[in-house]
Design brief:
Helix content is about 30%, strand content about 45%. With about 120 residues, the protein is of the alpha+beta class. The chain has a single domain, classed as Cation efflux protein, cytoplasmic domain (Alpha-Beta Plaits), CATH 3.30.70. Strands 3, 4, 5, 6 and 7 form a 5-stranded mixed β-sheet that branches. The longest helix is centred in the last third of the chain and has 20 residues. The termini are far apart. Belongs to the asp23 family. InterPro entries: Asp23 (IPR005531). It holds the Pfam family Asp23.
């Protein structure tokens, strides 16, 4: 649970809400096919459907400074470094502007390429 406080009170953000913002922001980026989730039984990465984007996101909180790790599948023929940089910038901007929380780092793990 993340908290943002000021003179008027406090706002508490659940990790699920933050993960949803991250997942939706990621899916808005060009070249992203979807979020990935590791299937524990056989070790394969599966493409997540719309309502489960948050399962491809891990959020770490240290003194209300957030670091994010996410798992994506990208489109074949696109430049992965450009896609990753776009994802990082979009997530950092959206999360900080929507919530007021500070994002220290975003790690993009590309788990697959799809045609």
């Amino acid at each position: 649970m993340m908290e943002l406080s000021n003179d008027f009170g406090a706002i508490h953000y659940s990790e699920e809400v933050l993960a949803d913002i991250v997942g939706l922001s990621t899916m808005e980026c060009y070249g992203v096919v979807g979020m990935a989730s590791k299937n524990a039984t056989d070790g394969f990465w599966e493409l997540l459907k719309g309502e489960n984007f948050s399962k491809g996101v891990k959020i770490h909180n240290k003194n209300n400074v957030i670091s994010i790790e996410l798992y994506v599948i990208v489109e074949y023929g696109t430049k992965i470094s450009v896609i990753a940089n776009n994802i990082i910038q979009k997530i950092k901007y959206n999360l900080e502007s929507y919530t007021g929380l500070k994002v220290s780092s975003v790690t993009v793990n590309v788990q697959g390429v799809r045609v």
